[in-house]
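Exercise 7. Given the components listed, write out the predicted structure of the assembled complex. Treat all entries as one system.
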Amino acid sequence: MTKSLNLNGATGLIDLPSGEAQDDARFSFSTALVGPISRATISFQITERLSASFRFQTWRDWNTLFPAESEDFDARGFDIRYQVLKESQYLPSLTIGLIDFAGEGLFSSEYIAATKGFGDRLKVTAGLGWGRLGTDGSIGQPFGSRPPVDPAVSGKLNSDQWFRGDAAPFAGIEYKINDTWTFKAEYSSDAYLLEDETRGLIERDSPFNFGLEYQRNPNFRFGAYSLYGSEVALAFHVILDPKTRATGGVMGAAPVPVKARPSRASDPDAYDGGWVSQPDAGPLLRKNLAKRLAVDGIRIEDLAYTATTVQIRIRSGRLDAASQAIGRTARALSHVMPASVEVFEIVPVVNGIGASKVTIRRSDLEQLEFAADNASLLRQRVTIADAGPWPSPSVGDDDLYPKFRWSLKPTFRLTEPLKGEAGLRLSASYDIQPGLVLSGSIYGRAFGNIDRSGNPSTSVLQPVRSDRSRYNKFGDPALESLTLAWYARPAEDVYSRVTFGYLERMHAGVSGEVLWKPVDSRLALGAEVNYTKQRDTDGGLGFDEYDYDVVTGHVSAYYDFGNGFVGQLDVGKYLAGDVGATVSLDRIFVNGWRIGAFATVTDASDEDYGNGGFDKGVRFSIPLNWAMGNQTRNSIGATLRQSNGDSGARVDVDGRIYDSIRDYHTDALDPEWGRVWR
Amino acid sequence: MGPGVALMGMGRLTAGLAVLALLAACGSEKVEVNPIGTMVGTVAKATIAKAKAKRSGATAQAAAPVTREAIEAYAMPILRVTIPTRGADALVTITDQKGDIVTWSTTDGTTFTFRSGILIQTRGLGADLMSADAPSLTQLMQDGGTHQRVYFFLGADDATTRRTYDCAVKVVGPEMIEVFQKQHRTTRVAEVCARQGGTITNEFWIEGKTVRKSKQLTSGAIGFIETEQVVD
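Answer.
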């Protein structure tokens, strides 16, 4: 039976959680209407047993009984749950979970829930809840009383409350009527005190909820329910599996076959290296290679060769997998390079600097093209190393690739689970020389429902972020960025970046970064220093509205834990002048999906944080080619934060080094290496 | 079917033949212009040929029955590939040959590579067979023979998935088959392969040293493809 989601977008019954877990990596967006309450939730099954949710709730008519209050109310919260037991023949699945565990405490609850299937149609769940889930039908306080949430620690881990106070049992059943319809019923231990007694929004007449759910397709599920004897609820879930491409596999035409060289015995002349001295050999080879590589959207940045070795520097624009770009380049080299060239050195270039150097022996390519398990065998014989210095002498690029690039693209940005904006972005860049790039972008809004009230921020801190509604309102269209960036390789395994100009829509100045990252190292260390001034809200070039400049900077450590989990720790000074640290963890899938969470704690006082306690949030990025199967490196994504305060904010500068080069280092190349032969 | 997989439907077989005709024409012309492009049916050329075929109204002739005569007129080896799970049916031509390894391609760049008629690779189908440890034709002709077979697929998560089977050969016996209006005297062979996850059967109709007809597993998602060698 399907492990279904509840009205809170978490695995469960109707309003209550169950003991089950989703399949590993399942990513879901849920929206639910519960009478006057709207809930939007993003959930992610981080590992087989661990999952987390980020929820955004709003209420219509929140102030019906309190006409004096004018502020709307919304709440954002995080859940986390862990499946202690997986279901077995005699034992149920058992999950322990925390709901809204780092919020203001209004929705905080904890539970243990067990679920057991009987046959292939019936599932029974029983559990015990605390906090909100312990408000009706209490059986006592097994772990002592629950202290009220101290407003001073609001937004932090409210661990003093966890599993304290009244505990109440809940239960429910799920019955599969047929392949598409499921019936659910539950007995809830949530008294809805806030909505019923305090705010008068919901009449809770009964603890029983009933409903029907419909699912035809693995990606969509609908539900309609009767809740608490008085309300009607509706749910809609979009369920995605990042591990499985919607098209079953990556699409796109087959590569050209590897060109076999004649054997040395049959044609010794073919192996003569005399061609190197021909003056027009370089431009001719480059031209022929460029023609072949253009088919796959690969550009040649440079080419250098001897009679036995060729180094080609490539920029891949369309293929989403670096290993596939490397494979296609090697195949093209096998057609174009004279037979005497045995060693292919392929250097993927990002922002004008070599990210790594993949060395493939031509005879391995020829031998393994049709061998069983050719990907593993080739990987064993290939070396991936530091890109090394720019080759000399080289043929050069000779304007074969366009130095000026521009695009006009529709963009969509999501600021909260139910709020977003669609617009158009005009971007352009010009490569002055490899590594020196002038670029800019202009954004104009089309439609959306993000905050454009233009009210000044009430933040105690400098409104480095909290005036966003003013930027949204007055800066349309806005010059988002206009920068001159210089990327370089000052030493082996060391990368640097200096960006100068209008770095982002709210701040301008200069940003410098250095990163140490050996090609095969799980660990990377970096440092960044920025000096910025806050820009005017009108999206123009001025600095008159705010008289604010600040030096910010971080030292960062990145660590690749394997299986796609990448952690990052940044310690330093943030935009509002606060000092602290950010911890983040992302799960990066081979196909480019990326889902992560972060938390920042700084010395800004609790009042300064606004309602979020400390800055924390989730981010995700979905590659378009995962959904469409076509060749593109575009993606859609968003960063959603619990609070929109000014603490813990960083300059949003383009081209940070770690993310741009990681794709070409072994930790990212190895899992997708199979595509080298694709 | 996703973009990029434009195998021709059976209804458009004649259109496909028209493409073949143009392809051959293009190929010879191109050889002079482009010394690298000695192969027939590379992606770019095929696309151009296809567009030309469309323009020349090839679709209008689609209703005409396809005859062996018409196919043989192209004077090149032709293989018919059918992918039941995709509802795809195509006549494909050789784009690469290295010893006993032959790669056949559709006009839009989906390829099928066989070693002596036994499928070892596909490209462009999505869930492709990236490589395989497959038996030789000689092994397939020995009744009662056993061997191990390993498939390497590109899984839905882009990671290489390995599937290992223990296989046994069963020579079913002689069978007359018809391939595009021509009778062939073949020996029918079943290769029954088992692993914990289940059993699959590849089938071959072998005529001398040629696999005249076959039904072979490609990948978990694509299932079996069927082949018929129409013109040698």
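Discussion: The two ends of chain B are 30 Å apart (CA to CA). Chain B touches chain A through 47 residues (CB under 8 Å).
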